[in-house]
Design a protein that fits this description.
alpha+beta, 5 strands
């Protein structure tokens, strides 16, 4: 799974269109999941093993994911959070993204 949305990377002129979950770190005691979606120019670039462009980071609590705790967190739940929650920079980047 991935999210499809063209986003310019940090005012560089580089545009990532294919966004894939690449990292997740869970602090069970605090009930917090930190995860990243890395961008690639295209799906084909990712499949060809190209290096990702910089990531967009998120930090969410279990309740935000609709879970009592993070022991059952899924990639699907993290992608849903990326669509509805602001990233660490305060922007909701993927509300209108397509699934890819």
């Amino acid at each position: 799974m991935a999210l499809i949305k063209p986003i310019e990377i940090r005012n560089t002129g580089l545009v990532a269109t294919y966004w894939r979950l690449t990292h997740c770190q869970i602090d069970h005691a605090a009930g917090i999941a930190e995860f990243r979606l890395h961008g690639y120019p295209t799906r084909e670039a990712r499949l060809a093993g190209k290096a990702p462009l910089p990531a967009i980071a998120f930090r969410v609590e279990a309740g935000t994911l609709g879970l009592p705790d993070l022991h059952a967190v899924t990639s699907t739940a993290l992608y849903a959070a990326a669509r509805s929650q602001p990233a660490c920079d305060g922007v909701v980047w993927f509300a209108d993204a397509e699934e890819g």
